[in-house]
Input
Amino acid sequence: MRRTIPLLLICLALMSCKRDRQTDMDDAAFVFNTENIDGDESDYARPAVITGHILHPEVYPNTREISLSIPFFDRVAQQQTSQISEDGDFAFSFYPYSPRSVSMAPFVDELMVCPGDSIHVELDFSDFNYVVFSGRGADNNEKLSVFRMRYYLGDWPSFGAYNEEDDEPMYPTATGFAEAARLQLDSYLESLEVFVAAEHPGKELEDYCRKEIEAGYYRALASQLVQYKRKLEQDVSGLFSIKDAEHLFDGVCMNKSLFELTSSLYSWQFLSVSDGELRRFIKDISLYINHLEKVTDNALLSQMLVTDFYNSLLNENSLDKFEEYFDIFNKKVRFPLLKLETRDRYLFKKSYQENPRLLSDAILNADRPKDGEPATFKKNEGLELIRSVLSGSEGKVVHICIGASWCIGTQQEKPFLNQMAQDYSGQPVRFVNFYLDDNPSFDPAQPSNIEDFHLTDAQRLGLDPIFHTGRGIPFYLLFDKDGVMVDFGDHLRPSHPSTREAIDKHLR
Output
């Protein structure tokens, strides 16, 4: 399950209750204000260019494009896609807004990029270990690639780890887990020293690598200790504090691990929230934002926590709430990267809501050649399954759950799904389960208008790059009567009243 359960409770209540305050701003006149950003625009508003060349492209002749992943606060990182030319060339251009990390999976795990950078990457389809950089920052990126492949794997102890011999928890107590995480940290820091002695990175890269290790450590503590507290009711006080990780948020380089760490800290801070405070936060977002600011003395981390919350509203396509309380975000968040990336995501979501067919068609036909392109694309079997479901659902609203029989969230939602399907019996609505496992479990309470598909390996592999099912399930898709994907995300859970509202809207 994902880390957003407490947040979803707040967002659910916020979306289902009446507005506590009114705004005189006309929705159509809403403008995302970026006038109060810190810093000089000439420093952050410079594009970065990444070019590349692929050796031996004939090894994978059906691979016609390569993707650049730009991490932020989202389930699915922002991506750019570049077509690979007949000569094996590709290129990207984007605004980093700040020194930050990006990736070109599965070829480059992490790439340091600054505003104004020009970086060239040479890849070899016959040897994925061959990666050569040139241009500005080439030395740092070559050595960073070595660090990630040989010295730091990012593997940390976890709450759910079990011993293979006796199938018992590997870390039954929070204290034991914290000790194991500390030993792993010491081991990685020793590896860092070996890396420094062997590769002689500059201080900038050495500090970057140290931050990467520490961010992984604190994220493991924050995210896993929450599980010990909530599921086992163990005392985790004294094992971790947000203050321990504050020094990592210095704004020098916004690597992927800092966004992940912020999301873990977001969950951690809920441990200190009483039920009474939670009810007050539900009634007034401004009180909740003030709370987020008080959990840390670090200015950047404070802005990142606030940005995480506002991006959760965008994740749930709750643009009305985002716009209604935008003035708080606008005042609190001034760091260029946080504000401008949020603006870009807001504009994308706004465009999607105004015309969902464009994005829907792009996703559903991602494996089909565009006009004028040769028909050499390999079919995506996950998309083929969705298209097959939609082809038999003309004139029906379709609600798809991507889950698994072993997933606690899927299990918890099952009674709500059964009740919802029963309530819509006889209406043009189709309920479909895509199970990531092949467990043919039989649910005697399941209504006849719910269909189950147990996905093959090929179907799972086809859906994951699009909806990132590996990052958390259950995940939901909603299609209107014309087969257009009009909404998607974990906010479409059957237990949420807003899900029925969305179905009713498209039934009309």
Notes: The chain has a mean pLDDT of 87. The first strand starts at residue 48 and ends at 55. Residues 5-38+155-354 form one domain. The chain has three domains: 5-38+155-354, 41-151, 357-507.
